[in-house]
Specification:
Strand content: 25-35%
Number of domains: 1
Number of helices: 1
Order of helices and strands: EHE
Shape: flat
Structural class: alpha+beta
Distance between the termini: 27 Å
Number of strands: 2
Largest sheet: 2 strands, parallel
Length: about 40
């Protein structure tokens, strides 16, 4: 298991920009057992 920090401007549920993709990616990584943290302005 790895600890991951995602820093981004847009995040799910915002559908603009990369928000949808980054949200799906973090959910997928968490299901794989990684410890995911998100830092965003949303």
């Amino acid at each position: 298991m790895k600890k991951l920090l995602f820093i981004g401007y847009n995040f799910s549920p915002e559908l603009t920009g990369i928000g949808k993709y980054s949200g799906e990616m973090m959910h997928w990584l968490a299901k794989k057992g990684h410890d995911c943290t998100v830092l965003t302005s949303y």
